[in-house]
Queue: 3 jobs
Job 1
Amino acid sequence: MEIPALAQHEQALRFRAHRNQVLSSNIANADTPNYKARDLDFGAALKSAQHESISLTKTSDLHKQAWGTTQDGSKMMYRVPSQPSLDGNTVAMDVEQAQFAENALQYRASLAFLDGTIRTLRYAIKGGD
Amino acid sequence: MSLFNVFDVAGSAMNAQSVRMNVTASNLANAGNVSGDPDKVYRAKQPVFSTFSASLAEQPGLAGVRLDAVVDSTAPLQLRYQPDHPEADADGNVYATNVNTVEEMVNMMSASRSYKNNVEMINTTKDLLLQTLSLGR
């Protein structure tokens, strides 16, 4: 039996973990010339989770998804720089840090929801107490 | 999904930034270098970073930092007329290093800030992992 509430939060956790990696790559490459900052689109990931996205038929695992879609359905896009720099780097440290903090908080929120669901289930299994 | 990759990414960035700090320290230490022979004068060194994602390929979007090379600065040396200097050449000139102290101080601050950012990133990710481990307790 699949418990919908658990699956939903698991997908959210997976997205947040992936976004954490992308944002940390941005922060790590803050001083690398010609590095272009990237981010994941939560809206696209949500749509894909709701099975509304249009995807190309793949006949081989080597085929790339259109629109730079990653395997978990989230869309990766390049950030539009607000202040271009001379070395071609588009990492805005303040933006990245704010997004990183927000993403970590969302991850914790998903964890808390999951934790609550597990507690409720356990409560039901034990018949209270 | 693996948050562990973040440690690799942040680790590579910290390594690159610490090399940058070392290079800056060398440059500042040699800021007073003077010689009568232009080939023997210390030249300011600069690290060159680039992005790599080959060994992190299983997850799209991951990118670490690699140190490509440490190159000598091509800025011109300072020529000083000091006939009484023991190292002066036949014309009475000595060559001073092309280390720019102000530039190096800025480099040092930038490297230390970036290093701290990466440490914070590791701390946050470590907290997230620990919380995930204690899920359902």
Job 2
Amino acid sequence: MALTQVDQGLLGTNAQYTGFKNRIINGAMVINQRGSSSYTINTDPVYTLDRFSLGQGGNVNSFTVQQSTTVPTTGFKNSMLVTMGTGVTVAAGAYAYLRQAIEGYNVADFNLGSSTASPFTVSFYVRSNVTGTFGVSLRNGGSTATYCATYTINAASTWEYKTVTIPAITSGTWTTDNTSGLELYFDLGVGSTYSGTANQLNTGANYFGVTGTTKLAATTGATFYITGVQLEKGSTATSFDYRPYGTEFQLCQRYYQNLGNVGVSALNATGVVGFLFPTLMRATPTITFSYNGTSNAIYRFSDAAVSTLSSPTIIATSFGMQNMYAFSPASWASTPGYGYQAAFVLNAEL
Amino acid sequence: MYKLTHLLFGQTEPSSVIRTTDGACIPFDPDNTDYQAYLRWLEAGNTPEPAEENQ
């Protein structure tokens, strides 16, 4: 077939058009390993749909998050729904934000903080019953430099596609390792203490909100749907990077794994030995385990008994659990040759 | 809020701490954000509970 048309967006010198152009993971809001149908934001932050967290503090304290099937007519299956309870006038030191932190390795080619830095573009679909100019921010992992920008929701309760291009950031410290390299924040209600000036790099304080923007938290019952979140190199927003479900799931597992029941076995007198993780994790994870919903409980195959281990010590690395030992009941974790089972949750989020 | 873990065989220092609110085992990995939160908790002047005695 003859080539008859080239999209102007494809001609940008910095843009990327191949797969994996999207540095946001789970931008289509499909993966929900934590499994809750509704997340109450009662700590700061609460991780919700994979890789996305919502934090709130001060007098902003009644947001909830759900995975929704309300989607724009562009091929998406899910969105994230953020709902405000009772609206408040956001105090100076209060805040509410939706966030995803991108691992430094995954934005290393942006060359942030150097003279060769590349611009990048954030795009997403949004729908809210509140209209106005809203804030979106890109912060470094050290919380010392933030580029603040805005986007406008024009019509209430209508899906709209938004793009925000961030010019090359040539100053500040931006890590390029397994720590947080670039953090995307949507301002849902950030007070003046944490708000920077739009369309510039703000330094010298911790900013993740944008001055003078509409605060969703001010409206009782405010709703905010979002999906198709993409952050890509270059100054042009391109079509959403639909990745295979299994691939997206594995990308999420680098930061969080909910393994369900896993069988483990006892080895001589050193306790219950471990297993390899399905995916190499970003860092050595925090580990919790349970059996049938009871924390620190483990099932023993030999007599179908369940016991709750006291103060279990777990030795792990980023690629696997090596050893688990508990003193009480003493016989459980030190009897060689026995098989055990428990559900493990591994957390190495940013 | 936190409790020290007992030493395992061959260890001279603990390698993790238990978060008592949910029983999570937090490794002493500087890149783990839960461990970073534990360090901030220590810096605030708090002290973890001692480890359980061997049985």
Job 3
Amino acid sequence: MIEVRDLRRDFGGIKALAGVDLSVAPGERRAVIGPNGAGKTTFFNVLTGELAATAGTVSLGGADITALRPWQRARRGLARMYQRNELFDALPAWENVALAAGVRLGTYRALTGISRAERDAATGQLAQVGLDDRADTLARALSHGERRQLELALALAQAPAVLLLDEPTAGLSPAETERIATLIASLDRSLTLLIVEHDMDVVFRLADRITVLHEGRAIAEGTPEEIRGDTQVHDVYLGKALGG
Amino acid sequence: MSRGLLGWVAAVAAWIVIATFPQWSREWESSRYATGIIRDILVFAIFAGSLDLLVGRAGLPSLGHAAFFGGGAYAAAIVGQRLGTNELLIGLGAAALVAGLLALFIGLLAVRATGIFFLMLTLALAQMVYALAFQATDLTGGSNGFAGVRRPAFFGVDLGPAEALYLLVAVVFALMTLLLWRVTRSPYGRALAGLRENERRMRALGYDTRTLKLSVFVLAGAIAGIAGALSAYAFRFVSPNDVALGTSVTGLVMVLIGGAGTLLGPLLGAAAVLFIERVLSSSVGFSQTVLGIVFILFVVFARQGLAGLLRNVAAKVRS
Amino acid sequence: MTPELVLQQALNGISFGALLFVLAAGLSLIFGMMDVVNLAHGAFYMLGAYLALSVVRITGSFWLALLVVPLLLAAIGLVVEPLLLRRLRGRHLDQVLVTIGLSLVIVDFIRLRDDWGWGGEVRSLAVPPGLDHSIAIAGSDYPLYRLFVIGFGIVLALTLTVIHRRTRLGALIRAGVGDAEMLSALGVDTDRLFARTFAAGAALAGMAGVIAAPVFGLQPGMDVDALIFSLIVVVVGGLGSLGGAAAGSAVVGPANTFGTVLVPQFALALIFAIMALVLLFRPTGLLGRVRIGR
């Protein structure tokens, strides 16, 4: 579903991505882990097109999307849940979701009103993440945990084929983490997931396979068990994060 | 009666009062003078309303909006002269078309920029239009302006007389306000709000933000052009001043003092500014100074503008 | 076009460019440090020119005006920044709006001051004695004052570069251009730094006004012209850096001069085309650090 070949991204002299190869099957749940500075966020930014690749290719569903702009990739079914919430603060929760869903219905419907059906659909999307009772609350008035849920709801409302989850549990309490993790786990298997995470419990719970990034390269890839036992990965992490 | 219906009734009633002002104020000594001012307030309210679509709704701070206002004014005047016609629809149509095209060309360049750079670009590009108005003397009359704009007629009905023209302006104002109301409450309007709130996320959701910005820029430009045409008909005169930076600034001041992002804002802002410029300046000579100070005070202390202040007062009254 | 004419126009272009540099440097400086596009920049320029009128009338000395006027503008800047801009920290667009209001007030003030010899009429300032003759260059006469303008621009550029690179203030400015928040976290009094930067920008604008007055005269609307040109210069050259102001004025100055002479109908279109090209192919501006858009 996602095919990344020799992806490189330089910032001046710094090679943030130094040739990443990655292949994710449809419906697979792949976690991308690595110490800080490994290039995970850069990787996501290049995948979505917000950063241009210096070299290499990105393919989605077999089609080369390397030259496409972010909005074009989104239209092809690529959605992202941001690490730092990117919400529409002045709009209520349901309108946030309606914006996400509205792309497929048409951007330039300038003379139609906003239908009851659209609002109900948005509320339904919110229900999926457990926020339907806060539908009318302005995004900026939600708690951090709720904003995280809304963040996820936005990405899901795009009805994507591939979902990039950028540290979904960032800044969440244990209870909220559990909630988000369960939500993600319950997502339909037709959705391909790519997850960047620091919380290893969440990683091991959700991932089918894990890719480990270090200094801009994928140094290991395999099932959670394989990664757990990989000594190179241990060295990179100093053994701490994997609970070893 | 529900709040929505009450709002509608109030709005229609207010419009009827305004639209019939010349009639019921006929006995007053300064009726003609006041009619002229209210007429201009309505024209500028359309102008400010179109600018608010950019500034208040889409978050695109434009300082070149006069290019479309004046462009529309010139278009209406020139088309009437060159085609030898008085027909209102042709004048308004030409104005909207020319202004829209100007907005397209300027927009294609300007929407590549964001925020403050967008503002700088619209300013500079609109100045080009201003210079053009000066140089194309054969067409525009150059620095002398275009005098003798033909009186508009609607399918033969002469709209030249003051009261008829006033009614025309009031009707177009109502139509444009209705249009803006409709657009801002539509999915498109919500997309504009999304653009203002978080452009990055809009792109990530799949919106072609550049084209979206261009579309609202052209729409706002076309509406400004219509306001310009009305101005041309009202004054029977178009000058480079109508495309000047001063007019763009005036528009921005109106949007802000009135309250950006509100429906009532442009009207309140236009009324406030024209009051300062026309009424105040006849007694004191320094209207621009007053305007500048009032503008600064609003930006610093009352950013939500008159409409916002009214809303706060209404909320307090209700509780 | 004869060689003499070409040389003359080239010198005209360079002197105009030098003037533009003095003008644009202040705008770029303020933006680089404070993220504010000072739309009162043209008004400051205009005020500088009119103040020079008065200083010359009172003291008879242009040179005194060149010294005093920037100081006066700096004082105004030191008052205005804390009064109007400081309370709007972080609200960049609102700060820009406030500078618009400021320009309205300044320009109207000038218009009303008939009693000071200002007012709405066209005025002129004489070229200072000593510079008011022409000298022979490559066979034809060229006004000495314009050569002075070129020299002044170069000296100013060098002075600013030295300050920028070698002094603590320059280091603060370089750092501030990158990240003012960081500076504050490091204990630098950013309020004072911002006020002084704004004052310096205003002083540069006033300086440009004094220098330009003998060449271009004084009239209503000169603030708008100055503002437009400085904006074009920084868009072309790059906003936020001295090098950008220099690069932009080096391009726009000669382009405008030659354009006005060679293709008077399209001089404006030429400048517009340059701006458009830069925006399309190098959105940062030729030497700029700040991305204008995507």
